[in-house]
Records
---
Amino acid sequence: MSLPPATPSPLGKISPEVFGSVIAPRLGAERAEVLAGPRAGHDAAIVKIGAGRVMAVTTDPLSVIPALGAARSARLACHLIASDLWTTGIPPAYASVSFALPPHFGDDLFAEYWAAMSDEWAKLGVAVVTGHTGRYDGCDLSIVGAATLIGVGDEGRYVTPLMASPGDRVILTKGCAVETAAVIAALAPQRVGDALAAAGLGDGALARLQAMESQVSVVADCRAALRVGVRERGVTALHDATEGGVLGGLVELAKACGHDLRVERSRIPLPAEVRVACEVLGVDPYVSLAEGALLCCARAEHAGAVLAALAEEGIAAAEIGEVMKGTGKLWLAESDGAVLTIEEPAPDPYWDAYARAVREGWK
């Protein structure tokens, strides 16, 4: 069987239109116990398993970022998946891991990756219960497989974006382009360092960017916010801002909850060193890969407590807007008084920009 010639498509996640037309109408059998299934802006599923208990499930790719090396890439991969599950309010407990490795990914390199991954699963309280590992022609970096995480918890403890309501406050942790800035600082420290110096930022700026690698996770963010309470007692929705950046995550959250969000751009944190790193890579920090930034909706009377809980853990956060009645749009207020209406996430520029930097051998 021969396949038709490939038509180039944008890198990264498929568009909401493709999801809505190709995937959403075809989800296999309907089962009444599925409380929350595949939906734009939902990071994980919720399945009722009886006796007041639910199972939370999520799946994501596993990657290797050459600039970080095997062990650091493995840690990052664990946190990318665990972050998605934690947005349900249910902590992860079990993992199914599948590797489709390129032929040149040798046993020693895989052993380094897997040892680091196992150590990180242990820190996250996750047991690996099944999986598959093999090498195949046609596979290459940076995607080397996928993992599924499962958690089990009380039915009254989970949250989904559908629980957000008009009047809820929108909170953002850390800020724009967290993963973008961390990766480019690791890939091209000399180029980024020169740009930081030209911008008048001190020697500590590069170190701060490189330290952001440890912040590419929202596990701690979720734990802190959830301590306040869920639903009417505090947090109503959590969403991991990843591809499409903070603005893309806000649009996804709006669509997922079925309401509009009104956000002020001036309230969205954008550290000066992150802005410079994004300029070096040639990407818009507001729409570039932002893993590590958590979007949290909370009842207005509990928003202050959520911010305080995050601050107690040393996690920077800001209230950036609110949920309003609507149909799933983002209203972005600019500093000059203009208000933009955004109904679809913009394509994430990170993937093409990163590929170019690697191809050109940035240092």
---
Amino acid sequence: MLINQTVENLRKMRLTGMAEAFLAQNQDPGYRELSFEERFGLLVDRESTYREDRRLKRLLAGAHLKTQACVEDFDYRQSRGLDRSVMAGLSTCQWVRDHRNVLITGPTGVGKTFVACALGNLACRNGFTSRYYRLPRLLMDLGIARGDGSYPSFMRRLAKTELLLLDDWGLGPLAAAESRELLEVLEDRCQTKSTLVASQVPVDKWYELMPASTVADAIMDRLVHNAHKIALRGESMRKIAAAGGQKGGES
């Protein structure tokens, strides 16, 4: 009876991991050989792990990553400009702590989205809030937010997100209003948060995507000068995977 009451009290205090560990200890005679300090330490460890797992699940769910990707799954066998030493540096997530950006460019299918989502996944595993958007969808959502009155709160959420991933940058020219909208998003993040951009268009061609040179200059200034640049090349990874050259396949 005392055990059930203790478990119930732990759950009321939202110590769910500790409650589960306490039940497990009482069902396993092996734990009786441990001292009180040892058993209590295991309970605390279980609660800590439980909370870390819940936080990671929450961060990953909020990130809306397009694909389940991990940096441990990078395929360095293909010659496509993915430098192992560069990725090892990025894998520390120090660039997120330093509020720097990452720009990934390359032709379709070489793995830009996979690399972007893997870095987003790693950021979540390191406790950073992340959010993946295809740029056309972000611009559409911004327009909807302006129309329904949720624009201020939407912009605040974007500004607080520690890593914003923008995929499919440059699928087509931006309208003047879209360029200004994008500048507002980047201005809120400049030197305070990190942004990752994935694009088929080389960085030096991004100016051509925006109609107003002053807005283009402002956007590029906020993105490029403190950014790590990854220029991928080679054949489509989807094509290689379809031919049996890669198990699981990046895309």
---
Amino acid sequence: MSFENIKLVIKNNIATLTLNRPEKLNSFTQAMHEEIKAAFIEIENQSVRAMVITGEGRAFCAGQDLGDRDIDAEEEFDAGDSLEQNYNPLIRKMHNAPFPIICAVNGVAAGAGANLALACDIVVAARSAKFIQAFAKIGLIPDAGGTWSLPRKVGLARAIGLSMLAEPLSAEKACEWGLIWQVVDDDKLSQEVERMALHLAHQPTVALANIKQALRASASNSMSEQLDLERDLQSASAKTDDFREGVAAFLEKRKPVFTGK
């Protein structure tokens, strides 16, 4: 399928999805949402073991393109419908993806764009990037999973400050606060993310997916529930070909060759 608002490249078991509306800072439209849905279907039908999400041009994503919506200031508008139809299914799909997702934040990430980035498993940002929870500026609350991810990553006090003040947060401060994984110089971003994606694409994919599931569940599980989940996921992980290969490689003192199975 050809795309106009995104780019999709699948190579070496890595899917790279690039938001491609640089003239509008890669802000979301309904057409972009439809293309992203189609892209994930294509990804699910191929042997993808890692994914990268990034933006074209000088921004990662400026959030929702308000010009794409039929909004009349004099009439009631149901913003929740767009969440239910577009953003929420996307965030759930990313959380449940059976492979790691890296976000390469190449510039400003605002509104839903910021929270799309935070929904990824590993976030690497260019030094010039900024994160902005811009919702309060137009009388809305953080969405696309923002109210879930922010307090878990940075704590309630910082989550409230970011959400209510809607001030830009630098990439370096975001990293210092534990909101993202890494900051790199702008001209090193693509190289670093490619290196990381290649590494992850050669790791035991099922185990990585189970790591995602276990860590994301830990915030709401009791200790007993988490121990039960660890037991079940460890049992499933130990039944994979990659586990057997990992043990064999360790005993034979060689580098393992994982297949993702």
---
Amino acid sequence: MEILQIILLLAGGIVLLYYGGKYLVRGASSLALRLEMSELIVGMTIVAMGTSAPEAFVSIIASIQGSPGIAMGNVIGSNIANIGLALGLAAIIKPVLTQDTFFRREFPFMLIASITLAVITIDRHLSRFDGILFLILMAIFIVYCIRNAKNGVNNSLSDNDADILKSKYHDIVFIVLGLLGLAYGSDIFVDGATRLARILGISEFVIGLTIVALGTSLPEVTTLLVATIRGKSGIAIGTIIGSNIFNILLVLGIAGTICPFKITEESYMADITVMLVFAAIIAPLAYFGKRVARWEGILLLSGYIAYIAYIVARSHS
């Protein structure tokens, strides 16, 4: 009976997270495009914040409920999934262009955020000071994006643009509905994931790396696929960079500030190393490449599948 309840909680949570993220992204993207902002900046700010909302809700609630393993595992797992799963799938369907000049300037922020997380938590502890530091860095990044919001804009928008809703009021309704779906979905999803971890005898950190990370990464996966198919490479690439930055600086910043915690998982350094490797993989694309080709997408997806297999095998050893 409890297994059935857990399945319903996980399934219901994923559904609410997916549609909540979808509505939030649709409303936020429409509102941003209405302001004629750069596609990459839209992806890195409005869309990335929308798709990172599930991670934020799940990690913050998990931290408050005394499950910091899920919070940290969710962030690391989601960042790996954003590159290995989301970008990999998108590139397999259609090569993702990386020619936007913004990508050359904004990408280092993601790499710096990832390295900062690894250095700060080398002592296996996320203090309140660390959380505040992350939030300060997040504020600096937001200010930087706002200052460059309209630089290099080359997308002229019309009233019948497919990405634009009927009015700004529709944008707000979509955003509110999305936030509500994310809030309720993340709450019941964390509940189901925690119960599952206890029954299977698997650490909450591993659950956060896999099930929770996959569930909360659905908005990123959907956004990247849709954006790539529609030829919106700027939004697709921007979403990856912005989401990974928000996951570290904003999500862990809030979680650490509210409830500092220790990292007890023995494999933590191995998992964060994998996150750094995935982040570094797209570095050559930022500076030398012009697109993420299909074969590169296959490599990214294969690497992600291999990592999941490694986690499963590790949890049973």
